[in-house]
Design a protein that fits this description.
The complex is a heterodimer. Helices cover about 75% and strands about 0% of the residues of chain A. Chain A is an all-alpha fold.
Chain lengths: ~290, ~270
């Protein structure tokens, strides 16, 4: 396919008119709201969702000088680190199983493990209530084993359990993309040279799948920081995070400048993470060639 | 046999681990079905008896029924409008070298929905769009457009090379080539994009939570508010419904283009 010829087939003007509606939607529903939001961060909140007329850094000073908000950021980062580690650990064996399965099974397994991703987070969070709730499956099992169950719901435990499950499909997809370069004959070669299975895993499979692990880790971390449905429903208001605070300030307190500053802080965090990911992935790619 | 040297005990252990993790991943989704058939008023397991009472309760819950109708209608409208916008855009992205624009158009997928929702709320309030049909459609276009573009771009790039050139060299004008050769060949990709857009719209909750109003809401948002305030099996009946719609769509997606290609994640 000759790209130059194809590009010639449609003149510039035609191209522009084809893409214009999509650009208009992005401009009106994405760029403009984002700019307005950024503008709100530099105003002072007034009662009832109104804002002061003057440009000011008062709201930034208020948010950044408040220990409560520091705690929210730390809570979000700590939760994201925990969820990321557990999600990768839980997703890795499943991705490996898919990767090693016979080709006629592979598609079915991918569907089973990945399709929950398309289901609403509300449904997937709600699904944990009859499992972790006081009258639920897990406490029932624990009681029949003679153990008095600790509260598993409406606290940090419930949020971690739910988020790990909800984010697993993303990690599985990322890991599968990374496994693409782990060729089966490479494993066989290592094994036939006498390497025990665990050594093959540690010295061959794991390093080669590092890019997938990094991508899955980034996705999981970022999605956890941005998540708020699961922390709300499974945390029962006891797991305050930066995302839940943005929602509360926007919908309940109606202090939009504060919500806007917190949003920009979140975006800044995302930017830093993305930058760090870019640096690390380049090193890894160089190392494994 | 990928691992001729692996000991059988190691394989058994790995198999068990995979089974446990798969159960963990799928349990909440599967459990809503038996839960929705519970005869109890509270979420307890196992239920003391089975009944269809929560489906009856759902059918007579006017708020939920209206929310379901809204979700179906919104999904249909968003799918139609989104494809009308996305198909030409995808053609332009594939034909022209517009990489910076392509990045801009997918950017909404990379940012947290909660920030997008707040931005829309701030803009919508000024124009009275909160809790309105145009507002909901615009908000869902924002979320669905990147998905549609990705699926359509992949589908258009995968077309057999040379067919379009052949049509052009036989004298077909560019517009005719696009309408009579490119689009029919890309039909499965377009159908897949339609299903994915409907599904994303039908299941969207975070952004909708910001821009829906007390008089106009969607099923996932109604479910969210219900679960927030009460824990009864009614929500299980709604969830079962949502799972079924999603499952049917996923199977259709798989048939048309393959699920992995549709939801992204690279490599195939």
């Amino acid at each position: 396919m000759n790209a130059d010829e194809a590009a010639e087939a449609l003149p510039r003007l035609a191209l522009a008119s084809l893409i214009l509606p999509a650009l208009a939607v992005t401009l009106l529903t994405f760029l403009w709201p984002l700019l307005r939001l950024a503008g709100y961060a530099f105003h002072e909140g007034a009662p009832g969702g109104a804002i002061g007329a003057d440009w000011t850094l008062v709201t930034w000073a208020k948010v950044l000088g408040d220990g409560w908000h520091h705690r929210l950021v730390l809570n979000s980062l700590a939760l994201a680190a925990t969820v990321t580690a557990l999600t990768l650990a839980a997703a890795y064996p499943l991705a490996l199983a898919v990767h090693r399965s016979p080709p006629r099974w592979r598609n079915t397994l991918v569907i089973v493990f990945v399709s929950p991703l398309l289901l609403s987070a509300v449904v997937r969070s709600y699904g944990w209530l009859p499992i972790l709730g006081d009258q639920g499956v897990v406490p029932g099992l624990l009681r029949s084993a003679g153990i008095e169950p600790p509260p598993l719901l409406f606290n940090g435990t419930g949020v971690v359990v739910g988020l790990v499950e909800i984010l697993m499909p993303y990690a599985i997809l990322s890991l599968l993309a990374g496994f693409g370069r782990v060729a089966g004959d490479l494993e066989d070669a290592a094994a036939s040279l006498g390497a025990p299975p665990f050594t093959v895993f540690r010295r061959v499979i794991l390093p080669l799948s590092a890019p997938g692990i990094l991508l899955g880790g980034l996705l999981t971390f970022v999605l956890t920081v941005g998540s708020f449905v699961t922390p709300k429903l499974l945390g029962g208001g006891r797991v305050p995070l930066i995302a839940t605070e943005i929602h509360d300030q926007a919908i309940v307190t109606l202090d939009w400048p504060v919500a806007a500053v917190l949003s920009l802080v979140t975006l800044l965090l995302f930017g830093v993470l993305l930058g760090a990911y870019g640096r690390v992935i380049r090193r890894v790619e160089e190392a494994i060639g | 046999m990928p691992y001729p040297t692996t000991h059988w005990a190691g394989r058994l252990g790995f198999g068990l681990l995979v089974a446990v993790l798969a159960a963990y991943l799928l349990a909440p989704v599967i459990l809503v079905f038996p839960m929705s058939l519970s005869a109890d008023t509270a979420l307890s397991w196992p239920p003391s008896g089975w009944s269809l009472r929560w489906y009856a309760a759902l059918a007579s819950d006017r708020g939920m029924v209206e929310a379901l109708r809204n979700s179906l209608l919104l999904g249909a409208v968003v799918t139609a409008v989104c494809l009308l916008i996305a198909v030409p855009a995808a053609v332009a992205l594939v034909r022209g070298r517009l990489a910076p624009l392509a990045l801009l158009l997918t950017l909404p997928l990379l940012l947290p929905s909660i920030v997008l929702g707040l931005g829309l709320l701030i803009v919508f309030v000024r124009f009275g769009l909160v809790g309105s049909w145009p507002g909901l459609v615009a908000a869902h276009l924002l979320v669905t457009l990147p998905y549609a573009l990705r699926v359509l771009e992949t589908a258009l790039r995968a077309l057999p090379p040379g067919v379009e050139e052949a049509a052009a060299s036989l004298g077909a004008r560019p517009l005719a080539v696009t309408l009579r050769v490119t689009l029919p060949l890309a039909a499965p990709g377009i159908a897949a994009a339609a299903i994915l857009v409907f599904l994303v719209s039908f299941d969207e909750v975070v952004i909708t939570l910001f821009v829906a109003g007390p008089h106009l809401t969607t099923l996932p948002v109604a479910l969210y508010h219900h679960v927030e305030s009460r824990t009864d099996p009614l929500a299980a009946a709604v969830s079962a419904l949502l799972v079924l719609v999603t499952l049917v769509s996923v199977l259709a997606l798989e048939r048309l283009v393959g699920l992995r290609r549709a939801v992204g994640g690279g490599g195939s």
